[in-house]
Design goal:
Elements: E1 8-14, H1 15-25, E2 28-29, H2 31-40, E3 43-53, H3 63-71, E4 75-80, E5 82-85, E6 91-94, H4 98-108, E7 114-118, H5 125-133, E8 137-142, H6 153-158, E9 161-164, H7 165-172, E10 173-174, E11 186-188
Parallel strand pairs: 1-3, 1-7, 3-4, 6-11, 7-8, 8-9
Antiparallel strand pairs: 2-10, 5-6
């Protein structure tokens, strides 16, 4: 990873996409460590976390994380998600955050030197190219160490550098806790 101490950094985390990639490769993200790691690598100006929330739920498994992130240095951007049941009878949540990420990246591009995007979503390819045209370096974090790869080939090619999530695992991950089981809803960020 090529980072420079005096460069102005911003993180853009597609919550559902990062969650899926991390789950696929068995990494549990420690968001405190993630901030600390990137603060060491430059002048971290902003850390955005994007997620869709089901507003009518009495309890949302993502709500405690969102609350923690808001109190601990993240700019959390949320919107209402659409809930549906897939053909296998599973509860699914649909909430694409691409427009929100795109707008914020374009707005911040004039004030930063390096953007780190935590997503593998190919829909972000064009905004990555656009901020690069403004002189901003872009690194993308996702993984190719899964079957299939969790990153769009177009997005990976558009970025200045690609960082595999598994290479960051020791720096930003936490060891699995005993008795952990995953009962969170699955998120689908496609429209």
């Amino acid at each position: 990873m090529a980072f420079y101490q005096n460069e102005r950094l911003a993180l853009f985390i597609d919550g559902a996409n990062l969650y899926s990639a991390a789950k696929t490769v068995g990494v549990e993200i420690d968001y405190r460590k993630l901030l600390e790691e990137f603060r060491k690598r430059g002048r971290l100006l902003r850390a955005y976390y994007y997620t869709a929330l089901v507003e009518n739920d009495d309890y949302s498994p993502i709500r405690p994380l969102v609350d923690w992130l808001q109190y601990n240095g993240y700019n959390v951007i949320t919107k209402s998600a659409r809930e549906f049941t897939d053909r296998d009878g599973r509860r699914r949540v649909k909430g694409d955050m691409d427009v929100e990420i795109t707008v914020d990246m374009m707005n911040l591009a004039a004030h930063i030197d390096h953007i780190v995007v935590f997503s593998g979503d190919g829909d972000l390819t064009r905004v990555v190219q656009a901020v690069k045209d403004k002189g901003v370096r872009v690194s993308v974090v996702s993984t190719v160490k899964s079957q299939p790869a969790m990153i769009s080939d177009d997005l990976r090619r558009a970025a200045d550098s690609f960082i595999d999530l598994t290479d960051l695992a020791k720096l930003i991950g936490r060891p699995p806790r005993e008795g952990d089981h995953d009962d969170e809803d699955e998120y689908d960020d496609e429209d």
